[in-house]
Queue: 2 jobs
Job 1
Amino acid sequence: MKKFAFILLSWVSVTTYAQQTISSVQNGNASNPFTWSCTCFPSTNDNIIINHTINMDVNWLVNNGGSITVNNTGSLIQTGNRSILIDGTNSKYLNYGNSGFYDVAYTNGGYGTNTGHFAVYRGMYVGTTSSYTNSGLLDGLDSLMTEGNFTNSGTLFGGNILNTGTFEQSGHLAGDSVGNTGTFTSTGGYMYFKAFGNSGTFTMNTSGFMDVQFNWFNLGTFNLENGTRIYAHSDFFNGDSIGGTAFLTNNAIIEVGNNFYNGYDINGSGNFCVSNDSYNWGNMSGTFDFCDNTGGGMDYNFGTIAGTITFCSTGCSVGVEESSKEENITVFPNPAQDKLEINSEEYFISGTILSLDGARVQTINFPGKIIDLTGLSQGSYLLLLQSENGVQYIKFLKY
């Protein structure tokens, strides 16, 4: 994971004056006194209300119970690379409009909320006693680190994400390298990661799914409850080979696109579906069903498998036989919301959308290469396309 860098330079005056409420009166630069109702430059502990388009041409500090409120008609967007620090109990940044910074940090009890569009172009940090709530769009992030409390019920597109505090997720979350060493609870929406690792406590319940493009690791406690789903496109690891503990409870569905490894403890009453080789040198208990597409049962068992576990009693199929022309097909955007466009020189005769358990959910009428997804629920799907050269497929995500 990339180093989290927060370079907060050249703060405006840190002298504390009597707190006042100051509003923007016109569009302009933040450093221009005529931008503000006080005809001054606001102090760090003032309550600032923005209803106009303000260019943030200085780094900014909010402390001693001060605040910035960007209303839905307003914006505070950096010119150049600018940073903002919200520091201290009751110091806050409330965004209902548009905000954009290079770095932003909440420390020592400072907090923030976003219901509009908040763009952070490098790093965002939430300290141990601080909190942040997103119910709008938070994007542009290269790195997000939270040691405090983070709540996402909106849409968060990040780069590298590390949670060492408390993270509550019910919206849409996409990131590159994502790690949890704290407490992470997901109760809905989608999570779309390139790589995932957990050494804390991670719980998925109620609804929602996790889609991981590369490897999936658990070295902590992971609870997957009914109504949820995990799809790991590459290898799936629970525990390791050098004695680390890892507890995985699966009461839902886990699909593995390549190899499966268990080095410690797995239990539950759900289903595993594995595409390639499977290895167990730990303990597997409960009443879950395990199905390995290369032979049904566990390929290599060096540990303990309880007699209550079944093998392929429900059946499963991860993936569809690939076509030699699969690399010529792409779809975008992916993840998609309402529409999916096929990018290929092929002429397609027919098409079908399948759920990952093989159920047909939509038939596509050609000609045309734009697919309407408005009738689909959130989740991962396979798009099967019939051309003169045979059946080709590609996986996509609907959010």
Job 2
Amino acid sequence: MRYLILSDIHGNWDALRAVVHRVRRKRFDATLLLGDLVGYGGAPNQVMEELASLPGKLYLVRGNHDKVVAGLEDGADFNEAAAQSVDWTRRRLTPDNLRALRELPQGPRVVSRRADRAAVAICHGSPVHEDTYLFSEPEAAMAFQAPPMAHVTFFGHTHVTSMFILHRGGVRGLVLRTDGRMRLHPSLRYLVNPGSVGQPRDRNPDASFMIYDAEKLTLTWRRVRYPVREAQRRIVRAGLPDLLAERLAYGI
């Protein structure tokens, strides 16, 4: 199985289209979407409708912004800019797209299994809880103990391309700052974050995505430039906070 892995699009249709264009000639059996399809960006309906163009079978889990926009949680812990974007997004989404957002499944979700355990799983924040951030090795150590304890679990939420590896000596964390590729060891376990398509926060504004070949055990991570100014214009025209547009240029 060959997977395209995307996370945290956040209503940024321009970034999503750039990723889809980059991979258009590659073959995928499935696309894994790790949540936060909407929120912050100015094109939520376009993002929801673009999902139909993604390659292969689609596996999704909801993110915290998806839940709040859909009215499943109140977003009491959201900052002012995030709260404003939630209100605007909820009012702009079509009834069908709002319903689809409300029906997104909760993670973690098993995507594939092998004889002894889950091979690939997905979640938004962490296997411990869908809203938990995974930044540190101690946090990852707790996540490795939670079901489904897959060989590879893909997660999002932090908007930082990164990886945690569980081995006999403990947990090792890596931040993946540039394009790269590695082969995963069949006897180790991995928590892998593909970064954010629509709002990277590692000081690199380029959209981030990953490709995983489960047969060859190869993981590839890539960045792709997109028309940031157009995404910014959509936010400004929508009357959303200027901060949400400005940060796209700096990857913060």
